[in-house]
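Troubleshooting log. The previous structure file for this entry was overwritten by mistake, so regenerating from the original sequence record. Sequence copied from the archived sheet and checked twice against the printout by T.R.
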Amino acid sequence: MTEKVIMHLVGPLSKARGWMKFAGVLLMIQGGITALSIVGILVAWLPIWMGLLLYKASDQIGEAERLGSEAALQGALERLATYFKIFGILLLIALVLGLASVVAALLIPSLVSLQPGSM
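Regenerated output below.
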């Protein structure tokens, strides 16, 4: 890939570099705060990992822009792909748990009323 093509591809990503770095830092802070609780320490690594992926992708985009490096652009895109895969999986899990909570909230009262000796 020529340097001109790399610069053309990096352009839109370069405009978002600041936001990627900002979101990455916020995710790492969120992970640190989550790790302060006993239960939270089990899942705190996820936002920290996601934050690091965004932060490093931002750095690699800057490197690709400065040097016209195809390897840096490829690395940034791989990190972004990993970030979005993790985000999608977590979003799917959250939606399933949310739906299960709604179903449970609707079914539990009627199941309790069916028990003998209930009000």
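The chain is about 85% helix and 0% strand. Archived copy saved in two places this time.
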